[in-house]
Task: inverse folding
């Protein structure tokens, strides 16, 4: 059965559903803006019901924000027709259990103890962070974060910017598990041992639609960037230690608990920090800062597209003491080395 257009969906749904007049214009606008298509009228009806729930949830949450009850706002984006729990099943992918021994590449945190980092820092301000992309419905955050870190090292080295191929990793990396997850330092090591990364233009991303990977191909496409290794900061560490590591070496692949309070509709403000939660999502740490009242935060680049957060970036509330926030860096704070 072919996909249903906006007009067809509305005609069919109008025959079988009672559509709230209050939500109908927003639903039509949403479908047009994000070019939504559904395989059947039934699927469209389910999506609209989820969208209506999202509208109500966003409105209720933002009222709490105005009352000072929560620290971030929500907004409608491309994920508004998805249930949050279902969303989290397909939009993470960090698998700590896959982590290979990387102790030989660990940098003692004591090396940075005496360093005094600046009060605030953001690698975006010097254009050393590549474009935000969207992993879609595939547990490939590990691949997007790994290559984002490589791309930043390319920019820091003064080379021409190039978007690298996540699909190459998903299809060909035999250490990690494609859409079923992976671990960034595994990826750095695999790239080091297998000739480097191919360009996205030669090996484009296709797994975002359906949570599946393909056969390793693109053998004739040359690698455009080699990786010579990686370095990982050892734990435990203080906030200042992590900041110094970030400022000295570049954006870092880090682990977070993405399924805890990382709302698909997040727009602005501070995401809640969760201590001792399962680390299930990889993101790129690009900076840090503090607001006018001294509230500290980390700045991360996500892989959920530019419609999420601040054009794909977010602020995570940091620990307000000297102990590094383990929900941000537990077992992973690493950058690749390149040639």
Result:
């Amino acid at each position: 059965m072919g996909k249903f257009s906006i007009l067809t969906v509305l005609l069919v749904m109008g025959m079988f559903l009672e559509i709230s007049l209050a939500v109908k214009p927003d639903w039509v606008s949403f479908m047009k803006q994000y070019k939504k298509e559904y395989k059947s009228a039934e699927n469209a009806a389910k999506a609209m019901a989820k969208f209506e729930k999202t509208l109500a949830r966003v409105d209720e949450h933002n009222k709490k924000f105005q009352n000072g009850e929560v620290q971030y706002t929500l907004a409608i984006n491309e994920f508004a027709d998805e249930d949050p729990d279902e969303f989290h099943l397909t939009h993470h992918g960090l698998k700590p259990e896959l982590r290979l021994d990387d102790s030989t590449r660990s940098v003692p945190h004591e090396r940075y103890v005496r360093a005094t980092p600046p009060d605030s820092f953001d690698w975006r301000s010097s254009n050393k962070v590549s474009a935000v992309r969207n992993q879609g419905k595939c547990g490939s955050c590990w691949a997007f974060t790994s290559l984002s870190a490589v791309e930043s090292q390319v920019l820091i080295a003064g080379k021409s910017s190039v978007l690298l191929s996540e699909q190459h990793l998903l299809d060909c990396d035999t250490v990690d598990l494609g859409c079923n997850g992976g671990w960034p330092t595994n990826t750095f090591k695999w790239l080091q041992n297998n000739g480097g990364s191919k360009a996205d233009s030669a090996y484009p991303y296709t797994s975002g639609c359906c949570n599946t990977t393909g056969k390793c191909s693109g053998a004739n496409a040359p690698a455009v960037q080699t990786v010579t290794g990686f370095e990982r900061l050892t734990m435990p560490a203080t906030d200042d230690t992590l900041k110094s590591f970030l400022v000295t070496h570049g954006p870092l692949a880090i682990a977070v608990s993405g399924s805890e309070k990382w709302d698909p509709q997040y727009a602005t403000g501070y995401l809640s920090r969760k201590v001792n939660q399962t680390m299930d999502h990889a993101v790129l740490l690009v900076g840090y800062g503090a607001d006018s009242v001294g509230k500290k935060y980390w700045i991360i680049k996500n892989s959920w597209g530019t419609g999420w957060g601040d054009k794909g970036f977010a602020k995570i509330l940091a620990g307000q003491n000297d102990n590094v926030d383990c929900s941000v860096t537990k077992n992973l704070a690493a950058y690749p080395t390149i040639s």
User: Anything to note?
Assistant: The chain has a mean pLDDT of 86. DSSP finds nine helices and twelve strands in the chain. The two ends are 50 Å apart (CA to CA).
